[in-house]
Amino acid sequence: METWKQILGERIPVELGREIDIYETQIELKRQGKIDDKVFAETRLRRGAYGQRYDNGQRDDGTGPKTLAYADRATTKGPDTLWHAPGMQRIKIPFGGMSNEQLEALADLAEEYADGICHVTTRQDIQLHFVHIEDTPDIMRRLAAVGITSREACGNTVRNVTCCHLAGVCRQEAFDVTAYARATARFLLGHPDCQDFGRKFKVAFSGCAESACALVAIHDLGFVARTRVGEDGREERGFRTYVGGGLGTVPYQAKLYDEFVPESQILPLAQAMSRVFARLGEKKNRARARVKFLVAKLGIEEFKRLVEEECRCLTPDPRWTAFLAEAQVVESAPEMAEFCQPVLAGERYGLWSVTNVYRQSQPGYAVVTVALPLGDLTSWQMRSLADIARRFCSDRVRATVEQNLVLRWVREADLGAIHLELEAIGLSEPGAGSILDVTACPGTDTCKLGIASSRGLANELRARIAVQFGQLDQDVSRLRIKVSGCFNSCGQHHVADIGFYAVSRKISGRTVPHFQVVLGGRWGRNGAEYGLAIAAVPSKKIPDVVAIITARYVSDRNPGEDFQDFCGRMGKRAMKDLLAGLMMVPAYEEDRTFYSDWGDPREFTIGDMGVGECAGEVVSPVEFSLAEAERRAFEAQLLLEGGDCEAGDKMAYSAMLEAARALVRQKVPDIRDDAEAIVSEFRRSFYDTQLFFDQYAGGKFAQYLFGRYEDDRRIFNEETTHRLIEESLLFIEAAHSCETKIAQRPAVVAPVSLQAELPETHAE
């Protein structure tokens, strides 16, 4: 009797099948201890296999399998966490496009090998959690049989190439960018010029400059479609091209590389840029190993000169233009085997049709967004969705960068019927692309870097907003909320209207989950503006933050004033004053709920100091100094807001020095109050000893202080000051964490690895 491997074998491309066989052999060699841990870690990451965090081994809703359920399947013990317990498998979906057969295959794999959940990411990927590494080769084979690969979904590679989910049907696009995204993904996958990066490389395509369907401005390489009239009078296609964008801990705006790159030149440009990045990009310090740092170091003009020089050295490749004929093909309506009869819409159709239906540029057709709370849907829902797509729109399903799925080419006459079908499988929630559609990274559910529960908070925000969603002010309903479980911006908090990222604070010896409130980001224009954190608020008060800020916006806005302009007019001091009453944490005996996280009844603490009853009224000099550092960082924002970039920069620098001094004074109480003495002692006592090191970020945050201290040719402008303020905020957070570590583990601080895995998707 033939096995499934034999049955599917004929459908797996020979080269891809061979790669999976080699990977399976590498797993066996790792089991035998014949492959170095670090080498194997990069090997599996390049196949999309990630380590995963475990606390109680369950999701917020308690549905996930517990770690102990897999304990008997663990093979060997070692530094690589995937040998202790299941991890995560990321699956590359170029431009987010999936066929019904692929949807069904993903549903089967989630059901058979994972926890029954398919998770859509902010890079249009699919992730399966609680997957055992021994099962990953079989998962990869079954994916390959339906035309999907997980190759280079993680690791120091070109990640999934993203694209507008409306490409080809958008009413404002210059042209359909789908074929260009597909060709780029295929060309760069496994390309020899893309195998020696210091970190990841992300590419995105947008059909227009105004919307944020592809978020070009936050990418290493971004293409925005445009046309021009050539010398022969014919219309030419090309792309306004950007380079060096990125979020992460400190966001960088992408720089304009070229106003118009002809369509025939985008692949050689991507290849040449990859070669420059591989040759000159940072390799040792992973915190600086992104294209954005290389562009900042060289300057955009020098970077462009090097890329153009590299282009001239390339050997011509027929693949550069082979796809252009395909790109000219206009997408047409699917030939449906079944014509559905018109159905009367249900009671809840009205609001859903306003928020989840987009009228295509092709008359009579629409795009239906299937809103996925937290980006999750069950295997059964995924399989059912494939059935619905087969009936209503054929193979026209795509993932979005906001963790949803869309059905394209739905006949407008079928909207009522498709809503009822979606309602029957629990996927008819309204609010796609609205304040209800909260984006969140995995946070402490599964991510090793998570500080607090971003998914738990997002779930709570959704629940509260849903109660009044239909009655919300129209401008408020259009806002975006995005939540990150740490400073890395995997939840894209920097470009949200209202963003949050997790931090912690020590209150009377106990650790309390907090979130920094980020305002000033702009989701539109491809994520064109980044926000700044203005205040750290206890996690349990974050829903009140949203209520207070949106209420003030409704009551005090000027006619036609959007949220970003309103926040700018109000100013950061006024916005922070709004939140002053929410920043206090009640005593543990008064309200213990503040000392646990959303969705987790356990106390949020990394140790109890066992202090006496008077400890709650004692504030150490370190806490005073860190509070002063926070004040200075906020003052720097006010100076920047007022247009004084130099003063804002210097104030942000002084905030870092004050935070460093707070720690140093514990070692040297009479330290001189000057930069040289503080930085020198901080380096000796906290950096060289790795006491300041974060478990996963290493000494990256200390480098922010050192870099500013050593910069004797400082250029003061809005961009550099904004960046330094971001760095000062992160340095202060790291100082808070270091102080907590000193208080709770004063005897020994063991060195930590600097080669930590980094989470989805914009993590640094």
The CATH class label of the largest domain is: Alpha Beta
- Low-pLDDT runs of 5+ residues are 56-82, 606-619, 746-764
How much of the polypeptide forms β-strand, as a percent range? 5-15%
Q: How many angstroms does the end-to-end distance come to?
A: 49 Å
Strand order of the largest sheet: 1-2-5-4-13
Architecture (CATH level 2) name of the largest domain: 2-Layer Sandwich
| Whole-number total of structural domains | 5
Give a quick set of tags describing it:
single chain; five-stranded antiparallel β-sheet; Sulfite Reductase Hemoprotein, domain 1; alpha+beta; 25 helices; 5 domains; 22 strands; Alpha-Beta Plaits; 764 residues; disordered C terminus
How would you portray this structure in words?
By secondary structure, the protein is α+β, with helices and mostly antiparallel strands. It has five domains: 123 residues, no CATH class; 166 residues, Sulfite Reductase Hemoprotein, domain 1, CATH 3.30.413.10; 76 residues, Alpha-Beta Plaits, CATH 3.30.70.3340; 176 residues, Sulfite Reductase Hemoprotein, domain 1, CATH 3.30.413.10; 134 residues, Four Helix Bundle (Hemerythrin (Met), subunit A) (Up-down Bundle), CATH 1.20.120. 38% of the residues lie in helices and 15% in strands. The chain contains 25 helices and 22 strands. The protein has a five-stranded antiparallel beta sheet with strand order 1-2-5-4-13. It is globular and about 80 Å long. The two termini are 49 Å apart. 52% of the residues are buried. The C terminus is likely disordered.
